[in-house]
Structure formats: structure tokens, C-alpha cells
Design goal:
single chain; mainly beta; Neuraminidase; 2 domains; 4-stranded antiparallel sheet; 26 strands
């Protein structure tokens, strides 16, 4: 998903392993994140626009009262969790009903960039110098003491194990559902690595991607990483890894399939 920032949002789908893609315009603004739960696809993006689609029904678009960018969205059993902010500030997390009506909204000092769920009750949000977790499906939130980066993405491969990547090169890992985070790669100010996305196929095999052709692969859960060379110097914003293949997307709309 993506689009032109203030003109339209698109979704691209493939049914042949990424060989060919179909495109559909689904929103008035660019889409920044999406989630799939059962037969519902939901997406959020610029200026807080939310788009969703249920099986057999056309895409629908709404805009809740939040005017800031929605950078993360999760579909739970009976509600939605939406997070975002703008200009590193004005962070928010909203709970929306099944009909996308506001249940409640919590404000935070910094912008959020991504959401992830390790279970239907445990939700995690990362952003500008902050990591928060909820153990009650988004009703209340507790901060984590791990700070020091503008965290860009978070992914859980199961209920216990997850990873975070940051704009200054941080890679963090948890093995206790986000209670504590271990630093696998520390942030740096000189020659920094701008990570934007992370994804794992299982507890061992994963990939982290970022700006200027940055692609790292691990086969041991992140203890050691291999740098992929001879790859176009795109700004990669997300990655999906499956067995010996990874799909990478860029900020210019490219989709690359990488055989590892």
C-alpha cells in the first residue's frame, strides 16, 4: 500500500508470488500502514484517513476526528487501534469501534511510527524516542525504559519474540512479549544506518531494511547479520520475508523480490 502523499492512496495485490501486481485506488491520501484480520483489510494514512474492506464489499473510507497522520493501524476482534502524530510530536493512540467511531484517545509526547500485536491483548507502539506496551488491548499503556532512537518499525513473529528497528541504526529484540528489550545493534550518529522496516519468517530468519539500499539478513534471530550487496540504492520502507525470499518496497513505489 502507498500512494501520492496528498492526492491518493493505493493498494497493490499479487496472487502469483509477486510476479505480477494489480493496483486499486482506495483513499484520498497516501496509505502508511495496513492490517489484515480474518476477512477484513484496514489501512490508515495521511491526515488520519482510514480505509477498510470486508470480503465481497467495496473499499470504504472514513476520517475520524484526528487530523494528524495515522502511521499505524491494527484490527482486533471488535475494535481498531490507530496510532500516529506529526513532526515528531503530538503522538496519539486511538481506540475505534467496529463502526470506526471513537472510543477513547490517549496523547503522548512523541509521534508514533508503527504498531504491532503479540497477542489479542498485548499491543506495542514505537516512535520518536519511545516504546509503549498495552496488556489490555489498548485501554492503558506503559512505557519501556529503552530509549535513544526514532524507532520506525516493530514486528512480532509469535507471542513472545519480536524486534524493533530505528532511524539511527538500533535493532532491539524481546523474548518476553516486550517486557524487556535487548540491544542487538546500537544507534550511532556517525555513518548511521537508517532502518525503516523489519520482518521475520520465524524466530531465526529475518530481514531489516532502510535508506540507500540498506538490506540486512539474519539466520540466527538477529545475533549476526549479513549485508546484502549489489542492490539498488533505493530507500526501502518495508520488507516481508518468507523462507528464501523477501519482498522489499521503496518510497518511490518499487517492489523488489529478493532471493536470499
Amino acid at each position: 500500500m502507498g500512494g501520492d502523499e496528498y492526492e491518493y492512496g493505493i493498494v497493490q495485490t499479487s496472487s502469483d508470488g509477486g510476479l505480477t501486481w494489480s493496483l486499486d485506488t482506495v483513499s484520498q491520501k497516501s496509505v502508511l500502514d495496513f492490517d489484515v484480520f480474518n476477512d477484513t483489510i484496514c489501512a490508515a494514512g495521511i491526515r488520519g484517513y482510514i480505509t477498510y474492506k470486508e470480503e465481497g464489499v467495496a473499499w470504504r473510507e472514513v476520517r475520524p476526528s484526528e487530523p494528524n497522520n495515522a502511521t499505524g493501524i491494527l484490527k482486533l476482534a471488535n475494535e481498531y487501534i490507530v496510532a500516529g502524530g506529526i513532526a515528531f510530536n503530538n503522538g496519539f493512540i486511538m481506540r475505534l469501534s467496529e463502526e470506526l467511531e471513537l472510543i477513547d484517545k490517549t496523547s503522548f509526547p512523541g509521534q508514533f511510527n508503527a504498531l504491532a500485536k503479540s497477542s489479542m491483548q498485548s499491543i506495542h507502539a514505537v516512535g520518536y524516542g519511545q516504546i509503549y506496551s498495552s496488556r489490555d488491548a489498548g485501554i492503558s499503556w506503559e512505557p519501556n525504559s529503552q530509549v535513544g532512537d526514532n524507532y520506525q518499525d516493530i514486528f512480532f513473529v509469535n507471542a513472545r519474540v519480536g524486534w524493533i528497528v530505528g532511524q539511527a541504526g538500533s535493532i532491539l529484540k524481546t523474548e518476553d512479549e516486550g517486557l524487556t528489550w535487548q540491544s542487538l545493534h546500537k544507534p550511532t550518529t556517525h555513518g548511521k544506518l537508517d532502518f525503516n522496516g523489519v520482518h521475520f519468517h520465524n524466530e531465526d530468519d529475518g530481514a531489516a531494511v532502510g535508506d540507500e539500499g540498506l538490506v540486512w539478513i539474519t539466520r540466527d534471530g538477529g545475533s549476526n547479520w549479513s549485508v546484502i550487496e549489489d542492490i539498488p540504492s533505493y530507500n526501502f520502507i518495508s520488507v516481508f520475508m518468507q523462507e528464501d525470499k523477501a519482498w522489499l518496497t521503496t518510497d518511490q513505489g518499487h517492489i523488489l523480490r529478493l532471493f536470499i
